[in-house]
Amino acid sequence: MSETTSTNEENKPPLNGRRAIPPNYSNDEENEVPEMEAFGLIPRGFNPRDYLRVVDIYMFKEPQEINKQEHHTDKYYNPKLIVRRGQAFQIQIDFNRPYKPETDQFWLEFLMGRYPQQNKGTYIPILVGNVLKPGQWGAKIIHRENNSIRLSIMSSATCIIGKFRLYVAVLTPYGILRTRRNSATDTYILFNPWCQLDAVYLDDEKEREEYVLNDVGIVFHGNIEDVKSRSWSYGQFEENILDACLFLMDKAELELSGRGNPIKICRVASAVINSRDDDGVIAGSWNNSYDHGVAPSAWTGSVDILLEYYSSKQPVRYGQCWVFAGVFNTFLRCLGIPARLITNYSSAHDNNANLRLDFFLDDEGKVDTRLTKDSVWNYHCWNEAWMTRPDLPVGFGGWQVVDGTPQETSDGMYRCGPASVQAIKHGHVCFQFDAPFVYAEVNSDVFYTRVEKNGTQVVEKIDTTRIGQLIVTKEVGGDGMVDITEEYKFREGSDEERLALETAVMYGVKKQSVQDTTYQPQTDVDMDFQAQKAVLGNDFKVTITFRNKSRNSYTATTYLSGNIVFYTGVTKSEFKKHSFSAKLEPSSPSSFDIVIKSSEYMRDLLEQASFHFFVTARINETGKILAVQKALTLEIPTLRIKTKGELVAGKEASVIVEFTNPLKQTLENITLRLEGPGVLRTIKKQFGRIPMNSTLTWEVKFFPMRPGLRKLIASLNSDALRHVYGELNVQIQKP
């Protein structure tokens, strides 16, 4: 006996003085549950076989059976039972003899983690009764036949989500007999947007189909002048993804008892999606070198990333904002929290949260890169998750901003949200979490400030409309774009907008007033900048137009700076400098064209083919400075995808991906990726080179997994060219 005690002691975790039970973080760990729990000494003649005994438990867990159909979980590639909380499901128990309610007593036990406790929701005993109360744990017999009974079991609408172990316990005079540990009866319980009592309840069926059940989405990118879109495979139902998502909560050390609360889950997930400070899922890289990893633009979906992290437990390299947002969306939809991916065009990354982005100019009107610390992202992606906010006053539930991209720390970690969209719109930024940061992302003003030799700062121009001009998401039930800017802000210049700003300032958002600095805008001359639609590898033209509204003749010393930038608005290199003197006739417009040659930009081009033009002009007669800046994204060629013959579930089919190299150079080190949720797992292929103007063809044979309308998504990545995508909608027939 003494030997066994000593080994048990070793396995016990160290206790600390503050809690009797160690923290319970892991959904995977288990405790030993005794098959016979004796009430005292057991008499010699006791034979467990004399009592009611469970022979088998049938879970109705096949995709076509009642539970997964009624709970909208039939799409998960997972052999175990998956149900949603607050809604009844059925199981059948086969005993060794007919069940006699007068004398037999049995109950069910659901357990989670290593230290199940009833008050923490990790040990749930369920007695069999006559009625089921909505949204409360309970069970009742709905059918009896021979030795079998069928039970309807109701789970609580607030119960913790994750994987539970199921035992059936039978009462005997001498102790409790339990079924043996059987992983085939494990039950996953998820959030339930179909249940009115659930915190994530969403009342529109079409929205539930989109925000919970759609496993493909659209990422909008490019810039405000030139919105581009690409597909992203969320793949929340693919094999092992549910387990990978539950593992993320273990990794984030979220107590099991907190896992029924979508606010807590979103908050910890926004930290664990990025690898900063907790070795989370994705390592970000914004510097265009992606050694020992995959370029962010090469990913076609979340599945590879989550599965790699689940198996290696090491951050997956590399991601940028749409990758963090894509993986976060998979996590939320997989657990049953309605979620959508948002793109904010001209997104402010305001380092000192004063609602103003400062671009400093030197004497000649050129940008001083040394002083300029803030940046305007061409676009930034985050997520919205749908839930009630019982922690806030009434009216701030609904869509909440959550962001897994590491930008600034919040409570000491790189995370952001959940922040109520409604609170951001009305300026109520006092409500947790991180509302001031999101408010600044969509509401900052851009200040152009000239620094004179003696250090005096003169504000030359204030642009109040550039930031957060367009906020979009994918439409419900289609691939189109829907403009949701009005959900985040009132119309520019309206009284409501002014009031929301005053409210935000009252609640502590810092806003420097213009009175702090000298500001005398130029009013009698306007300057505008337009760029021709430009295709990667070709020359294109830009035009600067002045409108002289005065009766005076002016001359303007004009300076154009063309920069290759990351999509975050940070400059990599200046590739074009051009200055000229413009003669401005009274009361008339004058235009000046400048040609940008491909030879000037191709050498340094970054993967999203983004340019940033900065034009400043000094009116020599008045000394006033005009400034305008514009982002431009080149058209990148696409991949062509086609299928051969008809596509039938389970029958071999073939898909062809083609790409023609449009550049005046040979492409080298090419990687192609192809995936389609429900159609085929990600396939990768490397190619050595594609000479200019020649076409690469790749044929893939595959077996489509399930019928219905599906999407194939492909990407091409090479040393000189990235962000090349193609997609194809395919209808897969029933066999």
UniProtKB/TrEMBL annotation:
<keyword id="KW-0356">Hemostasis</keyword>
<dbReference type="InterPro" id="IPR038765">
    <property type="entry name" value="Papain-like_cys_pep_sf"/>
</dbReference>
<keyword id="KW-0479">Metal-binding</keyword>
<dbReference type="InterPro" id="IPR001102">
    <property type="entry name" value="Transglutaminase_N"/>
</dbReference>
<dbReference type="InterPro" id="IPR008958">
    <property type="entry name" value="Transglutaminase_C"/>
</dbReference>
<keyword id="KW-0106">Calcium</keyword>
<comment type="function">
    <text>Factor XIII is activated by thrombin and calcium ion to a transglutaminase that catalyzes the formation of gamma-glutamyl-epsilon-lysine cross-links between fibrin chains, thus stabilizing the fibrin clot. Also cross-link alpha-2-plasmin inhibitor, or fibronectin, to the alpha chains of fibrin.</text>
</comment>
<keyword id="KW-0865">Zymogen</keyword>
<dbReference type="InterPro" id="IPR036985">
    <property type="entry name" value="Transglutaminase-like_sf"/>
</dbReference>
<dbReference type="InterPro" id="IPR036238">
    <property type="entry name" value="Transglutaminase_C_sf"/>
</dbReference>
<dbReference type="Pfam" id="PF00927">
    <property type="entry name" value="Transglut_C"/>
</dbReference>
<comment type="similarity">
    <text>Belongs to the transglutaminase superfamily. Transglutaminase family.</text>
</comment>
<keyword id="KW-0007">Acetylation</keyword>
<dbReference type="InterPro" id="IPR002931">
    <property type="entry name" value="Transglutaminase-like"/>
</dbReference>
<dbReference type="InterPro" id="IPR023608">
    <property type="entry name" value="Transglutaminase_animal"/>
</dbReference>
<feature type="binding site">
    <location>
        <position position="445"/>
    </location>
    <ligand>
        <name>Ca(2+)</name>
    </ligand>
</feature>
<dbReference type="InterPro" id="IPR014756">
    <property type="entry name" value="Ig_E-set"/>
</dbReference>
<keyword id="KW-0012">Acyltransferase</keyword>
<dbReference type="GO" id="GO:0003810">
    <property type="term" value="F:protein-glutamine gamma-glutamyltransferase activity"/>
</dbReference>
<keyword id="KW-0964">Secreted</keyword>
<dbReference type="Pfam" id="PF01841">
    <property type="entry name" value="Transglut_core"/>
</dbReference>
<feature type="binding site">
    <location>
        <position position="492"/>
    </location>
    <ligand>
        <name>Ca(2+)</name>
    </ligand>
</feature>
<feature type="binding site">
    <location>
        <position position="497"/>
    </location>
    <ligand>
        <name>Ca(2+)</name>
    </ligand>
</feature>
<keyword id="KW-0808">Transferase</keyword>
<dbReference type="GO" id="GO:0005737">
    <property type="term" value="C:cytoplasm"/>
</dbReference>
<keyword id="KW-0963">Cytoplasm</keyword>
<feature type="active site">
    <location>
        <position position="403"/>
    </location>
</feature>
<comment type="subunit">
    <text>Tetramer of two A chains (F13A1) and two B (F13B) chains.</text>
</comment>
<dbReference type="GO" id="GO:0005576">
    <property type="term" value="C:extracellular region"/>
</dbReference>
<feature type="domain" description="Transglutaminase-like">
    <location>
        <begin position="313"/>
        <end position="406"/>
    </location>
</feature>
<dbReference type="InterPro" id="IPR050779">
    <property type="entry name" value="Transglutaminase"/>
</dbReference>
<feature type="active site">
    <location>
        <position position="321"/>
    </location>
</feature>
<dbReference type="GO" id="GO:0046872">
    <property type="term" value="F:metal ion binding"/>
</dbReference>
<feature type="binding site">
    <location>
        <position position="443"/>
    </location>
    <ligand>
        <name>Ca(2+)</name>
    </ligand>
</feature>
<keyword id="KW-0094">Blood coagulation</keyword>
<feature type="active site">
    <location>
        <position position="380"/>
    </location>
</feature>
<protein>
    <recommendedName>
        <fullName>Coagulation factor XIII A chain</fullName>
        <ecNumber>2.3.2.13</ecNumber>
    </recommendedName>
</protein>
<dbReference type="InterPro" id="IPR013783">
    <property type="entry name" value="Ig-like_fold"/>
</dbReference>
<dbReference type="GO" id="GO:0072378">
    <property type="term" value="P:blood coagulation, fibrin clot formation"/>
</dbReference>
<dbReference type="Pfam" id="PF00868">
    <property type="entry name" value="Transglut_N"/>
</dbReference>
<dbReference type="InterPro" id="IPR013808">
    <property type="entry name" value="Transglutaminase_AS"/>
</dbReference>
<feature type="region of interest" description="Disordered">
    <location>
        <begin position="1"/>
        <end position="30"/>
    </location>
</feature>
